[in-house]
Amino acid sequence: MTSSRRDFLKSLGATAVGFVAAPAVFTQRRQKSCVVIGAGFAGLAAAYKLKNAGWKVTVLEARDRIGGRVLSVRMSAAGLALPYGQ
Predict the structure, then answer these.
(1) pLDDT tens digits for 38-53?
(2) For the whole prediction, is pTM greater than 0.70?
(3) Domains of the chain
(4) Which is nearest to 42 in space by CA: 69, 76, 72, 8?
C-alpha cells in the first residue's frame, strides 16, 4: 500500500491537534523539590543554593536549633558570647 503526501499531511495534522489539545496537566512543569537533612553549615548552604536554583526545599534538623556542631554560649552577666562547638 502506498501513501500519498496528502495522506501523510492529514495524519501529521491529526497528531498535531492531539498535542495542542492535550490537558494542561501534561504540559505544565512541576517544581522540583528536595529534602536537606541537617541544618548545619553544609545543610543550610545546600538549601540556600537549591532554593536560589528554583527548588522547593525542606530542611530537617534533629535538634531544636540550627547550626549543627557550631554553638555559641551567651553569658548574660558578662555580656560575652563564647564558642562552644566542636
Answers:
(1) 999 999 999 999 999 9
(2) no
(3) 5-83 (3.40.50.720)
(4) 69
